Amino acid sequence: MIANEMEIELIEPLIPVEDYLAAGVHIGTQQKSSDMKEFIYRVRGDGLYILDIRATDARIKTAARFISRYDPTGVLVVTSRQYGQHPAKQFADAIGAMAIVGRYIPGKMTNPALQGYVEPEILVVTDPIGDAQAVTEAVQSGIPVIALCDTNNMTSNIDLVIPTNNKGRKALSMIYYLLTKEILKIRGIATSLTLEDFETEI
Question: How far apart are CA 52 and CA 42, in angstroms?
Fold first, then answer.
């Protein structure tokens, strides 16, 4: 009986699949990297690669559990992407983490003489390409990296991949919202935050 309940829990998505689809979380790019092959569901007629929503859902849950092991103040979220900035900031504020949005100043994690120097225990990035400098510094410092990865991303320096459209406004809002909700749930913290709170104004 317990085994059956666990199976149901494992396949129970965080939100209905239709909601993921409506946010465009599954829409990839027209390029695919060999690293992201396992997360690709199919290729569309127009050449866009489509991500597997089940993998995205499972990885959000895994990432939330992983992040929850750390003190919130040791979590750093970095994003240079315009549409990632508001949701990433909301995520950081809600869970008590640090956020660096916009331009990342090289040395933030490696140069103690730099103003605003930080020593995170774990790094979350919106795009390994746009946030490459932060990823490099985290690797140099032995800090685990969680990254939102699209079909074209390379993942060699990433410890945990969340496969998603990491360029779309609604997709980024959705991922950061679900990650926040799941982390707070694991910590036993009630929240009144809604998806709308994470959406960037157009």
Answer: 8
- CA-to-CA distance for 78 and 85, rounded, in angstroms? 8
Identify the domain containing residue 27 by its residue range. 2-198
Domains in the chain: how many in total? Answer: 1
pTM of the model: 0.92
Tens digits of residue pLDDT in 164-196: 999 999 999 999 999 999 999 999 999 999 999
Contact 53, 16 (CB under 8 A): no
Q: Could you give the angle at the alpha carbon of 22 between the alpha carbons of 19 and 28, nearest 5°?
A: 110
Position 157 pLDDT exceeds 50:
yes
**CATH code (residue 137):** 3.40.50.10490
